[in-house]
Specification:
3 helices, 96 residues, mainly alpha, single chain
Length: 96
């Protein structure tokens, strides 16, 4: 009886977890492509952009300022400016 060598494969066999991962990756890629391009290869139209009147935005800002003033909140920038002005007057010799 002679010693028969086993045939050497040029590529290692694919394992089942690798095949499953490749199939899942292809399925996700196909879903993304179909969702982005649509079934006919066309872009899906985006919904119309809602335009807001600048007066409405300004009214919202005014309302927010009034709400903060009524609750006693003071902007930190204003507080820092007042403190800087107080220190400046104090260093120049003005009485407070």
């Amino acid at each position: 009886m002679t010693y028969a060598r086993r045939a050497v494969r040029t590529h290692p066999p694919l394992s089942l977890p690798r095949m499953r991962a490749a199939i899942v990756a292809l399925a996700v890629l196909a879903t993304v492509v179909v969702g982005a391009l649509g079934p006919l290869g066309l872009r899906i139209p985006a919904p119309d952009v809602i335009r807001i009147d600048p007066a409405v935005i300004e009214a919202g800002r005014d309302w927010e300022i009034m709400r903060r003033e009524q609750s006693g909140w003071v902007d930190p920038v204003i507080v820092a400016g007042r403190e800087w002005e107080r220190q400046r007057k104090q260093q120049m010799g003005y009485e407070l």
